[in-house]
Amino acid sequence: MPFAFCTREKLPWTEFAESAEDGPTSRFCQKLAKKHNMVVVSPILERDREHGDVLWNTAVVISNSGAVLGKTRKNHIPRVGDFNESTYYMEGNLGHPVFQTQFGRIAVNICYGRHHPLNWLMYSINGAEIIFNPSATIGALSESLWPVEARNAAIANHCFTCAINRVGKQIINSAETVRVFTLPVKFPAGRLCWPSAGDSAGKFHKYLLIAQRVQAIPSLPVTCFPESSSAGLRAAHQDFGYFYGSSYVAAPDSSRTPGLSRTRDGLLVAELDLNLCRQVNDIWNFKMTGRYEMYAQELTEAVKPNYSPNVVKE
After folding, report:
1. Which PROSITE patterns match (predicted)?
2. N or C terminus: fewer CB in 10 A for the chain?
3. What is the mean pLDDT of residues 48-74?
């Protein structure tokens, strides 16, 4: 589907919201995961029918057995320009879960969460060896940050990070057809991948597939878009901006793969030696020297309404 809410409207995008556990996207990916012996990370717009139809920005993790292993929800909601996503869904309430898969311990830091170093840190503290960052971000806003943030997170947290971005320009006209994301690519068996695949011959050597696509089929007709938006009575978006792709994988020793194209669909295959997480940790000991108890005490005070910053003056 197109980037949700790209027209500033809730409809028709909220009609795509679904259950994380048994929605059509999860069922589709479960079949692929089991058939191809792969772990699937599937970002969706989640509708929580058991709790008042609350909407969440969610990533579902599906085991290579075909079972839904669990889900994570977006912790940090942007309020930056037209990315005012607090209008549409809530901040995540599941913390920083890490999923033990046959191919390693993985976590998903959704989109805007990459700008928050503590978000990466908590996934690492919980034991993540690979942290995925599925994103939809545009050039004018964040492209200068893109090569730095996930790579820095890999170094600081002794883990692999996978920066994944949408690619291309999306134009929505008044009677547009919404295209549903599929991945018509054959994958070798046993691969750990986003958004739907990855390969491992053993415990420590992983193959990782990252895919970015401009459009996909099949198509679903939807109602016409209004000419104005309910978000501030501004003209509804028809062009959200250019999604610059450039997906890459970064390692804890600061190395990284080349990025995928800014303009075209792409598939990135990377082999990961998870021993590197432990080896780099043994060299630098960032977690041993992190002084987390000191920061925990200071942050506990800093969030209080009567907090006074520790500023020394003459």
Report:
1. CN_HYDROLASE
2. C
3. 96
Regarding beta strands 54-62 and 39-48, do their DSSP bridges make them parallel or antiparallel, or are they unpaired? antiparallel
- Residue found under tokens 């509804």: 236
Look at strands 104-108 and 130-135 and give their pairing.
Answer: parallel
Per-residue tokens: 255: 């190395």
Which of helix, strand or coil describes residue 27? helix
pTM comes to 0.83
Cis, bond preceding 12 (omega within 30 deg of 0): yes
What is the C-alpha radius of gyration for the chain, rounded to an integer number of angstroms? 20
189-209 pLDDT tens trace: 444 444 332 233 333 334 566
User: Average pLDDT in the 75-101 region?
Assistant: 88
What is the distance between the alpha carbons of residues 69 and 75, in angstroms, rounded to a whole number? 19
Q: How far apart are CA 84 and CA 234, in angstroms?
A: 14
Residue in this structure with the two tokens 């191919």, named with its chain if needed:
103
**What are the boundaries of each domain within the chain?**
13-289
Q: Indicate if the pLDDT at residue 91 is higher than 90.
A: yes
What 3-state class would DSSP assign to 311?
coil
> Between residues 218 and 33, which one has the greater pLDDT?
33
Longest Cα separation, the chain: 69
pLDDT value for 89: 86
